[in-house]
Amino acid sequence: MSNGDRQIMIRFEHVTKLYKTVIGVNDINLELVPGAYGLLGPNGSGKTTLINLIIGQLRPTIGKISVFGTQPWNNDSLLRRVGLCPAADVLYPSVNALDWVTYLVELHGIKTKEARERAEHALEQVGMTYAMHRPMGGYSLGMRQRSKLAQSIAHEPDLLILDEPFNGLDPIGRHEMTELIKQWIKAGRSIILASHILHEVESIKPSFLLISGGRLLASGTPREVRELITNIPNETYFRVSDRKHLVQAIAGLDYVDAIKYDSGQEGVFVQCRKPLDLMHVVQNLMQAGSLQIFEIRTQEDSLNQLFAILMRVHRGEI
After folding, report:
1. 20 to 30 Å CA-CA from 84: which of 76, 107, 249, 310?
2. Same domain, 93 and 204
3. How would you list the strands of the sheet with 36-40, edge to edge?
C-alpha cells in the first residue's frame, strides 16, 4: 500500500509474533493512514494478537511496529491516543460503571473532576446513564459491552480499537452501536473494528483488512476486495427457468470446466475460472428474455469460505 506523503498512523514491517511454537501473526507488512478499518477474520485468525501488538501489549518476535510515529511496546504515553474496547468481559461485579470508567480515565493523567465528567458523558453516549450508579455485577452482557465502549472513548483518543464490539447486544443495541461508530468516523477520528461477521463491519463502510491463519490476506475498500476475488476459480449454482438452455449457452465456453445438474430442481452447478465473465453471459440471456433466474449462489457467500479461497490464493494453489 503506497500512501505517498500522507501521515502513516500504523506501520508493520515484516512483523511476526510467536507464542513458543505457535504463530500468532506471520510476516505482516502494513501501512495505515488515519481512517476507518474493518479487521475481518475467523475466530483464532490473529485479530486479537494484531490488536495487542498495536497497543503495545505484545512485543513482536520479529519485525518493527510504529504507531503515530513511535514504537508501542512499553509506551504509556501512546495509550493516551488510543482507546481499546476489548473482547474480554468486564469482571468487577461490585464496582459501578461510573466509578470504573472514571478510574480508567484518570490512568491517562486526567484529574478526577474532569475524569468523572468525561466518564458521565461517555456513559450517556452509549445509553448507560440510567444504570451507571449500579454495580456491574447486575448488568446484562449488553450493558457490560456498552460500559466497555464508554471507557474506550471517554478520554477522546485519536484511534479507537473495537474488538468484537457487537457481542451481547440486541438488535436495537447493535443499531445504536453502529450509529455511534459512524458519528465517531464522521468527526474525523480513526477506528479499527475487529469482527468475524462481515455485515457488522460493512455497515460502517470501512476499508477492509482480511486476516486468517496469522497472515494478512488482502486489504482495501469493499469494492477492491470484491474485485480481488471476482475472478478466482469457483463453483456457482444457478436455479433457472430452463437449465437446458443455460447449459447449451455456456457449455462451449473455454473457462467453464464442469457442469453438474442439481437433481430434483431446475438448477446446475458450474465450475469455471472466470466467474465474472460467466455472470455477464447469464445476464445477457436474462435480458434477452430467454431465461429467468430464480437463484444464484457462489462458494464465497460466507466469510469463512471467502477466507478459505484467499488462503488458497496465498499458498499459490489457484
Report:
1. 310
2. yes
3. 82-85, 159-163, 190-195, 36-40, 207-212, 215-220
| Residues 139 and 166 reside in one and the same domain | yes
Half-sphere exposure of 184 (CA within 13 A, CB side): 33
Q: Tell me 250's DSSP state.
A: H
pLDDT, one tens digit per residue, over 205-221 is 788 888 888 888 878 77
| Contact (CB, 8 A) for 239 and 261 | no
What pLDDT is recorded for position 5?
A: 41
| C-alpha triplet 210, 216, 220: angle, nearest 5° | 50
Alpha helices in the chain (DSSP H): 47-54, 76-79, 97-106, 112-125, 141-153, 171-186, 198-202, 222-230, 243-250, 275-287, 303-314
Asked whether the predicted pLDDT for residue 10 surpasses 90, the reply is yes
Q: Indicate whether 116 and 201 sit together in one domain.
A: yes
Residue 122 lies in a domain: yes
Model confidence at 306: pLDDT above 80: no
Please tell me the total count of domains within the chain: 2
Q: Closest by alpha carbon to 193, among 15, 35, 11?
A: 35
Model confidence at 310, in pLDDT bands (50, 70, 90)? low
> Domain boundary at 175, 203, 228, which?
228
Q: How many CB atoms lie within 10 A of CB 204?
A: 18
Model pLDDT, residue 301: 47
For range 161-181, the mean pLDDT? 84
What are the backbone dihedrals phi and psi of residue 213, each rounded to the nearest 5 degrees, phi first? 60, 25
Query: Can you say how many angstroms the Cα of residue 175 is from the centroid of all Cα atoms in its chain?
Result: 17
